[in-house]
Amino acid sequence: MNFCPKKSPRILNTRQHFELRVGLISLAILFSLAFQLNQTYAAGNTPKITYNCINTPDSTSGHCYSMAEWNGASGAFTEIFTNQLYSGGGFVTNEMWIGSGNTRWVEAGLISSDVSLTQGSGSYNHGSTAEFLFWGDVNNSGKFYFHPGPNLASSDFGKTAFVEIQKTSSTAYGVYISNLPSASLFGTSTNNTMSDDYIHTGGELYGATTASAPVNGYSYNEWYNSNGGGSWNLQGDTDGFVNGPWEGYWQSTASSDGIGGDWRTCIRGAGC
């Protein structure tokens, strides 16, 4: 949704290194651990953390973010892992944005929400915390429009969603979410003459309690030139904007892996 960061209170450029040493562990113990993890982050049984992502002074929208940033010309692509999100009385996303300042933009990804979201002069309420696909835009009208897509089926979790936003004419951007077994989304942002100068990948959080977002990845990041050709992101190794309860870090940097980098996000205490 609406985003214009002030100077980030925390710029993260760390890589988390996890080492798992497996000994002789019985099948019963493995099952028990898996059951506990599933119960911890299941909807309705999330950790009771609190935060201020309604009117935080760290961003002009008042929301909280964990985002990588780089520049592009006419669109972008990322691959987002489909972990289960829980909104906790607000909304939480895993998504990609492209935009021009804070006046016009297009965004797309996955969301869990149980609040009303702006649709021009109206609003949309999903009616449940079920995770679903979405895209949104602010075009030349200056109004934000939220466009809901289908719920994710159980078969869609643990997969990778291809998220793409591409300029298709001087006044339009195409939005595409694909590669999941069940859910997909296609849309067009019209009456939109922005000259997009930033690309963000990451998560957005609105609310004050109980949301959860497990560790998620945004990889194979590309930017598109004016002819529609894609190039790997080779920027953004230290450009993470992170505030509120979010964590954000490069699992592999764009400059080191040569295939766009792998940005990771999660909510502290409720996902990592």
What does this structure look like?
The strands form three sheets. Strands 1, 2, 4, 5, 8, 9, 13 and 16 form an eight-stranded antiparallel β-sheet that branches. Strands 3, 10, 11, 12, 14, 15, 17 and 18 form an eight-stranded antiparallel β-sheet that branches. This protein starts with 26 loop residues before the first helix and ends in a 5-residue tail after the last strand. It has a single domain (50-267), classed as Jelly Rolls, CATH 2.60.120. Mean pLDDT is 82; it is low at 3-45. It has helices spanning 27-41, 254-257; strands spanning 50-53, 64-70, 75-81, 91-100, 104-113, 117-119, 122-124, 132-138, 144-151, 160-169, 172-178, 185-189, 198-209, 216-224, 230-232, 241-242, 246-252, 262-267. The chain contains two helices and 18 strands. It is globular and about 50 Å long. With 272 residues, it is mainly β.
Query: What does the main sheet amount to?
Result: 8 strands, antiparallel
The shape, in one word, is: globular
Quick one: CATH class? Answer: Mainly Beta
Question: Unreliable segments (pLDDT under 50, ≥5 consecutive)?
Answer: 3-45
**CATH topology name:** Jelly Rolls
Mean pLDDT: 82
The figure for the number of domains is 1
N-to-C CA distance: 24 Å
Percent of residues in helices: under 10%
Q: What's the order of the H and E elements?
A: HEEEEEEEEEEEEEEEEEHE
Structural class: mainly beta
